[in-house]
Amino acid sequence: MEKMCWATVADAVDYKGFPADKSKTGGWVSAALILVIEICERLSTMGIAVNLVTYLGGTMHLPTAESANVVTDFMGTAFLLCLLGGFLADSFLGRYKTIAIFAAVQALVILPFTASLAGTGMLAISTWLPQLRPPRCNPAASITGCQRANGLQMGVLYLSLYLIALGTGGLKSSISGFGTDQFDDKDEREKAQKSSFFHRFFFFISTGTLFAVTVLVYIQDEVGRSWAYAICSISMMVAILLFLSGTKRYRYKKTSGSPIVQILQVVVAATRNRKLELPVDPSQLFEDDSVGSTKIPHTDQFRCLDKAAIMVEGEHVKRMDGMNPWRVCRVTRVEEVKMMVRLLPVWATTIMFWTTYAQMITFSVEQATTMNRKIGTFQIPAGSLTVFFVGAILKISIGLALSTIGMAIAAFVEMKRLSVARSVGTVARHADSTLPMSVFVLIPQFFFVGAGEGIIYTGQLDFFITRSPKGMKTISTGLFLTTLALGFFVSSFLVSIVKSVTSTGKDGQGWLADNINNGRLDCFYGLLTVLCLINLVAYLVCAARVKPVQAYKDAEEMDEIGDLGAIGEEKC
Question: Where is the chain membrane-spanning (predicted)?
């Protein structure tokens, strides 16, 4: 009888927990079902974010500065929650369950016995029901005379937005990782497919964003926001069904514990041993040779963390699987934490870019609402100018430089716009008055910051992934995404400070007036330009000190060579 056998993936299982059969699991079919979730997530998040400031000001009657802060706080929270999603995926749920749960939160969740709506479903209803928004303004009244949304109306809106932020955070932390899980690194053909997956992943992000800022924004302005948000909700529910349909085809990686806990173990052990003297010979530090994973050579940087690997007689607390990691950590584990620490200077100097980016979906959209946006009889939605964010791919320093140029251009354009506003006498009139100035003068600032986004996003992601330990790729990706979160939060902080400091004059308007024709948005953009220049210099100083981690790369290569035998055993 002919021997029958099949190839399996060494570090993956199928939905039943058995070794994953290469012929029946993984590959492009599985990856495509996962990418559908990503394109719908981008459609929902960006479709809401880029045009939200006009809804907050025009419908909910919030002041300009407060509207901008609501948008940036929403986006910042969404990216910050990626850390929570990554922690849950690595420690408890796994990537598959994390994606399914958080996608449902973002789309529509029917809670038992309450039939309440969440995420985009709730947002669609909050923009549809008249009771959940204030009455329209009297055309003869100024913006300050409009009735502001009450506590209940804002509460429902906030609940909707932050449920969406929760869903986004859970999804973004797991989608790219679960997608790459469908390809076997030890198979050369699938390894090449995995590289192509990243290209398609970014393409789907751009496609979802492009559709959101064009078609979806147009539907919001011309048909109705509730219809646009309903499209987001329905598309996400369809994507969830497609995602669940691939349950039997996916490859699943077992959870190996959260890198956050591993980092904390090193910090706690080093703190406990802070009064001990480090041995002169680093080889006396603890390293478990019985562990089969890659070992990283000791380095002299951040010696305070080396104390986590000091072995003290009489204080060894044994467990069933060896040394207690909260008391003593392997040198390799300490070096992994050092590698993460080395990422922090670049991490800190890229936050400012996302602060600049935040202005493009807030104040720059406000600028567009006051300008002539018509091409013939067609009027371009103000939020659709963000289409120029879809840019190119180079290096981080170029992205920071382009964002600085974009802010400088934005300051000059705003000076011109204000001079036009004063010349036609609309300064004291309504904020929605259309100026005799084409909206296309805003394109350069959108283009430069948008090109900077494409450049810096991929540059950051590559930097954080390639320079992080093999077992901490998820947390390093989360660390990268926190630069987006902190960038949006810094924007909210700057707006609040500038609003407070500059609103002490006679009119109490300041740089960020409710009617931007009465403010000095150009001065605010000028301030951001100066901050961007300072940040660029700081980044270049940090980047010049970055050294390649060649030793760890060599160790990983040796580990892969050692695994070749396992590949041969799977063939027949």
Answer: 32-54, 74-93, 100-125, 157-180, 201-220, 226-244, 343-365, 385-413, 477-498, 524-544
